[in-house]
Amino acid sequence: MTARPKRASRSLTVSLRHLGLRLGGRTVLKDLSWQIRPGERWVLLGANGAGKTQLLKILAGDVWPTPGREAQRHYLWRGESLSEPYGVKEEIAYIGAERQDRYEHYEWNHRVLAVVGTGLKRTDIPLHPLNLEARQSILRLLGRLQIDELASRRFLTLSYGQRRLVLLARALAWRPALLLLDEPFNGLDEENRARALAILHALRSRRLPWVLSTHRAEDIPASATHLARLEGGRLIERGRIRARDRQSPRASPARVAAPPVRAKRAEAVLQLRNAWVWLDQRAVLRRLNFQVTAGDCWVVHGANGSGKTTLLRALYGDLGVASQGELRRRGIAPGVPLSEFKRRVGYIAPELQSLHSLYLSVAEIVVSGLHSSIGVELQPSKSERRRALQALAKCGAAGLRDRTARELSYGQLRRVLFARALVRSPDILLLDEPYAGLDAPTRAALRDRVERAHVKGATILIISHHRHEWPVYATHELELKAGTAVYCGPLRRGRGRAHA
Question: How many Å apart are CA 351 and CA 201, to the nearest integer?
Fold first, then answer.
């Protein structure tokens, strides 16, 4: 009897030896050596700008390391050793903010079923209709994440957190030999975060290796086996994970001088009456009524898909309110351009990370905040550059001033967007998950900056799934569920950051 040939293993081992990376004339990674074996589940830690995302891109084969005499990159796949990612790249699935932003940038507004189907076909965009078997497989996968009701929705009509879950489903449909997850829990509410963690936990039986980067100790999955830590582009730690690695780092508390003094009869700056907002022929906000007065600090919260981001986009002026409702902005009467309102507003939202050109300089991005524009038409004047540099310094980002957007990490670009939002010392701040992608010290410093703006009289509306990120002197809260307000009023006792 002829013996059956042994089936080649689907396990993937990746080995990096003495790798380096330079971008824009700067060293991003230095003399890096690392090995990822089947069954290992790595957590990758490091401050903003440490090189985490670029390291994941090297693993995925999306970025080429800088040539070096001793530099080596090996992939052991199906018994074959490969020195380049060609031939194995399609076996690696990658989820991250930049991948997610591509859908916004290129306006890939396909239905969720088709987006997840690209994971089955391992393509960027849908190329062919899905057959019945593929559709059923995708619906089962969406059911595991409890998002099957999104199957017929278009991707760009989803909330940020919903998009992240859909892309996780796409990565699982890929059936990869290596899974790379760059800050995968950003934008997820508590329930969806728990579902995503449960999915990762269930992957243990498949010996699927994965690498997950995060800034939050609470996001380290219980099933993680190993930890690697980057500092200044160097891998300073790698090995088995320990109990102390799961403890949250203690950030310095925000230092706020004194609570804001509010006028007895503050003027309304924003007012919604019977407001409906529609996207893709679907009502996202329904019968919304609330009023924001000068000096208020509102926290807007609710589950993924409840309408939080849509609300801030409508208040800012990027989405319209249906004719049966009304949205009033102080100082904006008929005939007054909406741009006059936007000049008084500092706005931070996830989509801003993708809308700015990668080749725009940091100074130009911040100067665009003076004009409430995306990009700038003319070279910034000396006065505008001076104001931009002052805003960058206040946000701890002065050292980034000579770089372009493509040279920044996600967290570094978020600091630049803070400077852009604050460059005019705005009357109103609209902040949509502003601290996503930031390390603990940077989060604390920028929370302090927001709270100081409130003390000086700024009106604030902030979205955050993390209660400890709510401003110290929050005055009101709006809780949304399926587009309607379930609570709208003064901050409820025991709900603020001090009680989180």
Answer: 30
Structure tokens at 153: 């929705």
What strand order describes the sheet that includes 297-302? 345-348, 428-432, 459-463, 297-302, 476-481, 484-490
Pair 17, 72: CB distance under 8 Å = yes
Q: Assess contact for 340 and 333: CB atoms under 8 A.
A: no
Using 70 as the pLDDT threshold, list the residues of the chain that sit under it. 1-10, 246-265, 494-500
Alpha-helix residue ranges (DSSP H) falling in 278-346:
308-316, 338-342
pLDDT tens digits for range 170-212: 999 999 999 999 999 999 999 999 999 999 998 887 889 999 9
Q: How far is it, in rounded angstroms, from Cα 391 to Cα 388?
A: 5
Beta strands in 51-132 (DSSP E): 72-77, 80-82, 92-95
The owner of tokens 């981001």 is 309
First and final CA of the chain: distance in angstroms? 69
Cα 242 to Cα 437: distance, rounded to the nearest angstrom: 23
- The DSSP annotation for 327-365 comes to EEETT--TTS-HHHHHTTEEEE-TTHHHHS-TTSBHHHH
* C-beta separation of 200 from 221 below 8 A: yes
Instruction: Catalogue all structural domains in the chain, each as residue range(s) with its CATH number.
Output: 12-246 (3.40.50.300), 268-499 (3.40.50.300)
Beta strands in 63-187 (DSSP E): 72-77, 80-82, 92-95, 178-182
Question: Which residues have CB under 8 Å from 265's CB, separation 6+?
Answer: none
For position 333, what pLDDT does the model report? 86
Contacts of 407 (CB under 8 A, 6+ apart): 23, 24, 26
Report whether 3 contacts 64 (CB < 8 A): no
Q: Do 82 and 11 touch, CB atoms closer than 8 A?
A: no
Q: What is the CA radius of gyration of the chain?
A: 24
Task: Report yes or no: 328 and 270 within 8 Å, Cβ to Cβ.
Answer: yes
Asked if 11 and 38 touch (Cβ cutoff 8 Å), the reply is yes
Q: Residues 15-34: pLDDT tens digits?
A: 999 999 998 889 999 999 99
Q: What are phi and psi of 409, to 5 degrees?
A: -75, 170
The encoded tokens of residue 389 equal 């540099």
Reported as a single tens digit per residue, the pLDDT across 241-273 is 987 776 655 554 455 556 666 655 678 999 999
User: What is the DSSP code (8-state) at residue 475?
Assistant: -
Q: Which two tokens stand for residue 138?
A: 């995708």
Instruction: Return d(Cα 431, Cα 350) in angstroms, integer.
Output: 10
Tokens 């995302």 sit at which residue? 53
Amino acid making up residue 29: L
Residue 250: its pLDDT value, please?
A: 53
**Sheet of 26-36, strands arranged across:** 26-36, 12-23, 72-77, 80-82
| pLDDT at position 357 | 84
SS3 for 100?
helix
